[in-house]
Design brief:
Layout lengths: L1 H24 L6 H12 E3 L7 E3 L4 E4 L2 E4 L16 E6 L1 H4 L9 H9 L4 E6 L5 H15 L5 E7 L15 H5 L1 H14 L5 H13 L1 H21 L2 E6 L12 H13 L3 E4 L13 E3 L2 E4 L1 H16 L4
Helix pairs in contact: 4-11, 5-9, 8-9
GO molecular function: hydrolase activity, acting on ester bonds
InterPro entries: SGNH_hydro_sf (IPR036514)
Keywords: Plasmid
Length: 315
């Protein structure tokens, strides 16, 4: 019995020491997995709507991956919206949020400077959302906005990852409270996913975007968005975010094909953003080594492409 107690005590102290070492080693905010874990812990909460899944905590703020991220009263990143001022809303996941980029360098920040003071740009990006979640979240935000300000245009910015189904289940108490457990759970999920290599990843994304279940899931989300925006008289632009793993040997044209067809079916403007980066070195546009989220230079190119379209009347 005494030996068992000593073993248990050793395990507990070993785990505590491991947790301390992980926290010390990631204190520089350069570990992508831990920074995303902190984002979920500090700035997110479960949504009351299962279709949304998770949302930002209104009024919360944190320094993540070396960047200040502030959430306004609507539950969105950025400053408080100006009552009465017409708005362009950007809807998407962490690629739209501007993960790892200072507020002024995000797509929302750069578009705001290009469009001027007559219109405000509202950033409705939330990390780790699928296309149906992005749509459901936008509809909830639209309800919160009410008559506070008119929404002129909604820009839907799906990433390649947004086509994947959302994993079911809760991460568990230990993963939510331990950086060590979060790292172990992430590495284990990657090792057992069956999509560790590039070819396996592309195959999984292709199934999600072009398979019957995936196409039906995306089509239903677009249909729901069309019904709501049509009723409100909101212009919709679909701007397909490029997959940022590799701009030279690009393998994600099937994503553009799916979103382009859906946009055309609903009479929406469609913009393929990949040509802005074709042939470039992808890592030049990452927030940091190992984190493929777009940096401020990438958002500058996208803002230059979208600003004239947003300033022009709907086609």
């Amino acid at each position: 019995m005494r030996a068992l107690v000593l073993v248990l005590v050793g395990i507990i102290f070993g785990c505590l020491a491991g947790e301390g070492l992980v926290r010390l080693g990631t204190a520089n905010q350069k570990n992508y997995v831990i920074e995303m874990w902190r984002y979920a812990k500090l700035l997110k909460r479960p949504s009351d709507d299962p279709a949304i899944g998770h949302e930002h905590v209104p009024g919360a703020s944190a320094r993540l991956q070396g960047v200040e991220v502030s959430i306004n009263s609507l539950g969105l990143r950025g400053p408080e919206p100006v009552p009465g001022r017409p708005a362009v809303v950007l809807a998407g996941d962490s690629m739209t949020l501007g993960w790892g980029v200072a507020e002024s360098g995000t797509l929302a920040g750069q578009l705001a400077r290009r469009l001027g003071d007559d219109v405000q740009v509202v950033n409705a990006g939330v990390g780790n959302m699928t296309v149906p979640q992005i749509v459901a979240h936008w509809l909830e935000i639209r309800r919160r906005i009410g008559d506070a300000f008119p929404v002129r245009t909604l820009v839907l910015l799906p990433s390649s990852r947004a086509g994947l189904p959302q994993p079911a289940g809760d991460a568990g108490w230990l993963v939510r409270h331990s950086e060590l457990a979060a790292l172990i759970a992430t590495f284990w999920a990657q090792a057992t996913s069956g999509a560790a290599g590039r070819d396996e990843m592309v195959a999984a994304y292709r199934t999600a975007w072009t398979g019957p279940e995936g196409q039906a899931r995306i089509a239903q989300a677009f249909d729901r968005l069309a019904a709501e925006t049509r009723a409100d008289g909101i212009r919709v632009i679909v701007a397909q975010m490029p997959d940022t793993n590799d701009f030279r040997d690009y393998a994600f044209g099937f994503v553009t094909g799916t979103t382009g067809r859906e946009a055309a079916a609903h009479g929406w403007d469609f913009v393929d953003l990949y040509p802005l980066f074709a042939g470039e070195t992808a890592a030049d546009f990452w927030t940091m080594p190992g984190d493929i989220h777009p940096n401020a230079a990438a958002y500058a190119r996208i803002a230059d492409r979208l600003a004239p379209l947003l300033a022009a009347p709907a086609s």
